[in-house]
Amino acid sequence: MQNSTAGINLDCGMSGSHQFIFILIPIVYSSTFVIGIIGNSMVVAVIFFYMNLKMVANIFVLNLAISDLTFLITLPMWATYTARGYQWPFGGFLCKATAGLATFNLYTSIFFLTALSIDRYLAIVHPVRSLRFRTPLYARITCVVIWLFALIVTVPIALTRDVIYITNTNTTVCGTLHLKIESTKWLKELLLATSVMKSLLGFVVPLIIIITCYCLISRALLGARHIQKSSRSRDDEVLRMLAVAVLAFFLCWVPHQVFHFMELISQLSKEKDCTLEEIIDTAMPFTICLAFFNSCVNPIVYGFVGRNFRKNLLQLLRCAPSGPARPHPSISSKMSTLSFRASEVLSLTTKSKASSDIK
């Protein structure tokens, strides 16, 4: 807490301190918390009680929902912090923990989406060769690696956050360590490294992998359509479900990534631009709201889009037993079935090409 007692003066004043932010943002945070907790809890419960946990897709979706729940518990603190006019009352440890969990959720969400995209690519394009890799054991190992790697790359974020007292505005904020507090070379390098890592590992690289997977899937399915026209609607449904998940993440996180990049440029600049800082600090809370809302979108994409999810949910609410003989179909099981059908079509395409070569 020594940083709090020392205090700093902001060169450009308290940018982004507007009364409408202190009213609107807490309402959005509270709504996101309620919707996200209910939605993700339903997804976890339905997957755990009514779906096959031996399926790779179900394992990834379950971990994604748990990741969102882990982050959502911090939203009441962020809502309180904003409603108090950026006055942080929860101490240094919770400041580091909540800031770390926000970035931790960014990494885990995009990593699990990437893993799910790779799994769909292997299931559809390489159905036979991927069988030995697409097992529950490998899926669980992948999840453990994702959790650990996300934790490792999040630790520097937590280390650069602390409670800071701003003397010229008389506010105690939870923010990034200011270079005037610890004017050391390692802090400047660490802040730069975490910013670049957040943009690359948390957005650019996974997005490239996901888009590549979907392009390869689309090319494979389009090449197989002339063999079996009846698979058109089924294949389109697989691609739509995958595309919606990526599009939702893209729309929710792009604005924040853009302003985060602008903030990085502002930090590296030798000359202070108070007008630019005012724009960034005013827009950043809204981009963060949109990014946090992605935790509510995931249950909709992975749960409510499935035709049988509502049946499973109603059965759960009625406390009806699932029955070991015939588990209810789900969005993930449906995706696996469609992948198998698509694989059959691709197999037919390969055989057809082989036959034409022989002739």
From TrEMBL:
The chain crosses the membrane at residues 20-49, 56-78, 90-116, 137-159, 196-217, 238-262, 282-305. Keywords: Cell membrane, Disulfide bond, G-protein coupled receptor, Glycoprotein, Membrane, Receptor, Transducer, Transmembrane, Transmembrane helix. One of its GO terms (cellular component) is external side of plasma membrane. This is Type-1 angiotensin II receptor. The lineage of its organism: Eukaryota, Metazoa, Chordata, Craniata, Vertebrata. It is found in: Cell membrane. Belongs to the G-protein coupled receptor 1 family. Residues 39-302 form the G-protein coupled receptors family 1 profile domain.
